[in-house]
Amino acid sequence: MEAVKIIVPAPSPIKLHISSNFPSSSSGGTTYQKSTALQWVIVHNRGYRPSVTCTDTTGEVIIPEIIHVSLNEVHINHTFNQAGTVYIN
């Protein structure tokens, strides 16, 4: 399975953009990941299972499989390589 792994700091809500159109970087609480993937692995280090909302590149909410593998990590599984945005609160 093709996967992208993102490790982000714990404080405040997290917004992640996953797209081949963005440079890989972090700025102002928003992380940009320059690749699409079947699985997005996000290490958020919050110590709890946060709410997770995903949208595609047009802003439409999508419903992937979301698995909280621990209190600090979530796996988001898609049926095809997906780009979009993840909101973690």
Descriptive report:
- With 89 residues, the protein is mainly β.
- The protein has one domain.
- The chain is built from no helices and ten strands.
- The strands form two sheets. It has a six-stranded mixed β-sheet, with no helix packed on it.
- A hairpin with a 2-residue loop joins strand 3 (25-27) and strand 4 (30-33).
- It is globular, with a radius of gyration of 12 Å.
- The N and C termini lie far apart (26 Å).
- Residues 22-29 have low confidence and may be disordered.
Question: Would you kindly provide a brief summary of this structure?
Answer:
The protein has no helices and ten strands. The chain is mostly beta strands.
Report on the biggest sheet.
Answer: 6 strands, mixed
Percentage of residues in helical conformation: under 10%
Strand content: over 45%
Q: Given the C-alpha coordinates, what overall shape results?
A: globular
Rg, Cα atoms, Å: 12 Å
Number of H/I helices: 0
| Helix and strand pattern | EEEEEEEEEE
* Overall number of domains: 1
Count every beta strand, where a strand is a DSSP E run of 2 or more residues: 10
Strand order of the largest sheet: 3-4-2-10-6-7
Could you list the spans in which at least 5 consecutive residues all have pLDDT below 50? 22-29
Overall pLDDT, averaged? 76
Roughly how many Å apart are the termini? 26 Å
Helix-strand makeup class: mainly beta
